[in-house]
Design brief:
Radius of gyration of chain B: 37 Å
Strand content of chain B: under 5%
Helix content of chain B: 55-70%
Number of strands of chain A: 0
Structural class of chain B: mainly alpha
Number of strands of chain B: 3
Oligomer: heterodimer
Order of helices and strands of chain B: HHHHHHHHHEHHHEE
Chain lengths: ~300, ~325
């Protein structure tokens, strides 16, 4: 339990690790979504290719854009880009750094989807079954005498288990295509990993000192924004508390002159210590009519947003 | 598991934005669960297929939308700010617009999730559009009535089920394409909004609007809390006042001299305080009776100016020994 709490706190401690956490969650979500999604090859020559390749490309684009939408740094980047210069100069390298880090994080979930799709093989099978040379897989008597159209229609049905009658040919063909698909998948993974390695390994060769400075200031901008938001929230809370207290006292002050003739001359010397604080807690509102006025005026005549200074 | 849930709840309660986001996500998960547990039951008759599908695709999202609006705290804050008379505080329409757009965005998530899960699953499209499929695309029979029965597996007409499966696949394919297109459109909209908004919006005004809408939310919560605390103190004083009103001047018959009777322990003093002067059975009975038949008025001004009762000690013959207030 403590480990969970520590991990939670660590993830929240700074924006970078929080974003890394979100990135990891999105990668898992993309793998989960693939397995939950029901792949449904149309098994028709006109649509097979579109469906197969579409499912390889469109969800990664979607995950990439989702990474941008969910990443708070995008707003920080845009604000920093558009703000008037004022008293603080703008540094373009910081903007470039932030943009690069956002893009790198957003690329992970699409990469996961593409890898999982290629490793699974169904998408390639759907898209490329038409291009198979069926003579390699079994007796050629199957396609003898068929017109071109009919042959293509037959090949298009290979991905669908229940629509293609010759199960051995289907099994052989799907193994073949899955094999190619997995090879592509591994190549893709290798390429991505190698590119990431190159970026990481080569960067320190150039401008390490400037890089440290850039990293510091982009962190700073992020943390400053968070602190400002927190301070505003705390301030709003204190503002509201004092405003409400003064509102209660205002109303009780109006009523005090009305009740004055009802009260006896002095009552203050009986009060013991705790009774005084109880009285204070009532904020001057002691009768039903007063309280009704408090609640009525809260809606019909809200107090101005201007606090008196307490003497 | 309970501890983890508590931790997650604590994190979400830390500020009210997180609460709204949490509720929004919970509603989205509820909508997915609702869809998976819903027993979809296509009528397989040409007149009713489209109607049923339209119903399943639109009625639950509408319900989820209204649920999302109801459950959101900001709805109340926004309506309050919009409808209140101006009074001493000027009204800022930008704040109302901000709260409205935040509320609508959150409420739209669960319906969109339902619609997308529906489309990606495909059953509804198959039910609605199997009649419109051109049977010439597939080898087989071509009667509209038979097309309408495509969604139902168990019908005896489909001895050759491969035709049915082919048509299902075809329509489901279209349904998934529509689903992914909508998803893509929405996400492009979201990404563009995030990237382009600072170019058009005045960020400074946005900061102000966000501060004041958060302020309104906090103020409403604090006001409610202050009222609750005030009610508790008010009630306590009212009840104490009621008890003390029932006090009477008492006469005690005690043989021992005054200097002993003045000696009391500390705990006895506290106990005396809590009795509020009600010390006899008939006083208690009278008090309880009066609490029901004649509740006191809601005015505790007098409690600070309460009259004092008088205790008199007499000896057995009726001579006054000592009198105390």
């Amino acid at each position: 339990m403590d480990k969970f709490r520590m991990m939670f706190q660590f993830l929240q401690s700074n924006q970078e690790s929080f974003m890394n956490g979100i990135c990891g969650i999105m990668a898992l979500a993309s793998a989960q979504m693939y397995s939950a999604f029901e792949f449904n090859c149309p098994c028709m020559p006109e649509y097979n290719y579109t469906y197969g390749i579409g499912l390889l490309i469109i969800p990664p684009i979607w995950f990439f854009l989702l990474g941008f939408v969910l990443n708070n740094n995008v707003s920080v980047l845009a604000e920093e880009w558009r703000r008037p210069t004022g008293r603080r100069t703008k540094d373009p390298t910081i903007l470039r750094y932030m943009f690069c880090s956002i893009t790198q994080r957003s690329l992970i979930a699409p990469a996961v989807w593409v890898s999982v799709t290629l490793m699974d093989g169904k998408s390639f099978l759907c898209a490329f079954s038409i291009n198979l040379d069926i003579d390699r897989f079994g007796n050629t008597s199957l396609v003898k005498g068929m017109s071109e159209m009919e042959r293509i229609k037959l090949l298009a049905r290979i991905p669908c288990k229940e629509l293609f009658e010759h199960q051995e040919i289907r099994a052989a063909a799907s193994r073949y295509i899955k094999c190619i698909s997995q090879a592509c998948g591994w190549m893709f993974l290798l390429m991505m990993t190698f590119t990431a390695f190159l970026i990481r390994a080569i960067r320190p060769c150039f401008t390490q000192a400037a890089f440290l400075k850039t990293k510091y200031w982009s962190h700073y901008i992020d943390i400053e924004r968070k602190m400002f938001d927190e301070t505003c929230k705390e301030h709003a809370k204190s503002f509201a508390k004092v405003c409400i207290h003064q509102y209660f006292e205002n109303i009780s002050g109006e009523m005090r002159s009305f009740h004055y003739r009802r009260s006896s001359r002095d009552g203050s010397d009986d009060d013991s210590e705790d009774k005084k604080s109880d009285e204070e807690k009532l904020l001057g509102i002691r009768a039903q009519d007063d309280m009704n006025k408090v609640l009525w005026n809260w809606h019909t005549c809200k107090p101005a947003l201007a606090l008196r200074k307490d003497e | 598991v309970m501890e983890r849930l508590k931790l997650v709840l604590q994190y979400f309660q830390s500020n009210s934005e997180s609460i709204s986001n949490g509720i929004c996500i919970i509603l989205a998960l509820v909508s997915v669960k609702l869809y998976t547990s819903f027993d979809f039951n296509c009528p397989c008759l040409p007149q009713y297929n489209k109607l049923y599908s339209l119903g399943v695709m639109t009625v639950p999202p509408i319900i989820l939308f209204f649920l999302g609006v109801l459950v959101n705290r900001h709805t109340g804050v926004m309506m309050d700010e919009w409808m209140r008379p101006t009074g001493n505080r000027s009204k800022n329409p930008a704040v109302v617009k901000y709260l409205f757009s935040a509320m609508i965005q959150r409420a739209l998530l669960a319906p969109m999730v339902w619609i997308l899960v529906t489309l990606l699953d495909g059953k509804i499209f198959i039910c609605a559009f199997s009649v419109s499929v051109d049977p010439a695309l597939f080898q087989g029979l071509d009667v509209i009535k038979i097309m309408a029965k495509v969604p139902c597996r168990e019908d005896v007409i489909f001895k050759n089920s491969s035709f049915r499966k082919a048509v299902s696949r075809y329509v489901r394919c279209h349904s998934q394409a529509v689903g992914w297109s909508i998803l893509l459109f929405l996400i492009v909209l979201g990404a563009m909004g995030r990237l382009i908004k600072p170019c058009f919006d005045d960020h400074a005004t946005f900061l102000q609007t966000r501060y004041w809408s958060n302020y309104l939310d906090v103020e409403q919560k604090l006001f409610d809390e202050t009222c609750v605390l005030h009610a508790r103190d008010f009630a306590r004083k009212c009840v104490v006042q009621f008890f003390e009103d029932m006090r009477e001047d008492t006469v005690l018959y005690l043989p021992h001299p005054p200097f002993i009777s003045n000696f009391r322990e500390d705990w006895e003093e506290e106990e005396e305080e809590r009795l509020h002067g009600i010390t006899k059975q008939q006083q208690v009975d009278k008090l309880l009776n009066k609490w029901y038949y004649s509740k006191p008025e809601l005015d505790v001004t007098r409690i600070s100016h309460r009259p004092k009762t008088c205790v008199t000690w007499e000896d057995r013959e009726g001579n006054t020994l000592y009198s105390d207030v």
